[in-house]
Amino acid sequence: MDEVPGSLGTSASFSLRIGQTMFSSASLLFMSLGVEFYSYTAFCYLVTIMGLVIPWSFSLALVDGYSVLLKCPIRQPGILLIIVVGDWVLSTLTLAAACSTASVVDLLLSTHGSFCPPKLCSRYRISAIMAFLSWFLSLASSLFNLWLLPSL
Amino acid sequence: MDEVPGSLGTSASFSLRIGQTMFSSASLLFMSLGVEFYSYTAFCYLVTIMGLVIPWSFSLALVDGYSVLLKCPIRQPGILLIIVVGDWVLSTLTLAAACSTASVVDLLLSTHGSFCPPKLCSRYRISAIMAFLSWFLSLASSLFNLWLLPSL
């Protein structure tokens, strides 16, 4: 069986998971350090989803780290399928949250400038960008694992 | 080769494509019959994406219709791959547009009631729901074709 770079149990996958954890945490922090986030539904949604993505990515990063250290990657189709589906669902939810946040920030900036102090709004915007990056990495993980799946 | 229901050239796929075309057209009409949509970025984005989805789904509906009538489904892996990727990209864009629209409508309704007459806002909301339905059908098409792809 050939090794797919980026699939479960490789060092590339470990980097992807660490990246996901970092970007999601950054998104959560930039959003929740502002005290007004709970007055907008989209921002609450982003915080909820990021609270799901961080433990998922972090635990898979641990699994990848162990696999790389022990040189013994997990190769059960069932587990891989769960990971592919989980990644895919979480990446869809992350994309939805990032788009909602971005559009709300855009609306707050463009038409209701007085509702949003520039400092808070730029923080919300950074949070949305971080969520998009986390979506991208999560999608990459899902695709690499999906690529590996038929060869098992 | 076994037939996957919902894959290219079957009557189930034809129904899916017709559903996508109908929901996207409904979403576009509900949005663009209101004259104020171009003042919000998210609404313009939805109109743009729906303008892409409608011709794509409609032309694939025509292809499916011909295949069903002539009983001669297309089975070239290259064409199928293009359709899977195209469906997937368009469904991602549709999801992004639907989420953005939904969050903007929610924001307009909840905090700035005066900016949005109830009649217009309910129309925007129906447009977002139609976009979500179109996303769902588009995703189903993409998954059915992806399922068929390895067997070719």
TrEMBL record, chains A, B:
Q: Where are the transmembrane segments?
A: 37-58, 78-105, 126-149
User: Membrane among the record's keywords?
Assistant: yes
Q: Name one Pfam family in it.
A: CASP_dom
Superkingdom of this protein's organism: Eukaryota
Describe its membrane topology.
Multi-pass membrane protein
InterPro entries, A to Z: CASP_dom (IPR006702), CASPL-5 (IPR045009)
Where in the numbering of this chain does the Casparian strip membrane protein domain appear? 8-137
Q: Where in the cell is it found?
A: Cell membrane
Keyword terms, alphabetized: Cell membrane, Membrane, Transmembrane, Transmembrane helix
Mainly resides where?
A: membrane
The Gene Ontology CC terms held by the record are: plasma membrane
Annotated family? Belongs to the Casparian strip membrane proteins (CASP) family.
Describe its assembly.
Homodimer and heterodimers.
Q: What is this protein called?
A: CASP-like protein
Query: What is the protein's species of origin?
Result: Phaseolus vulgaris
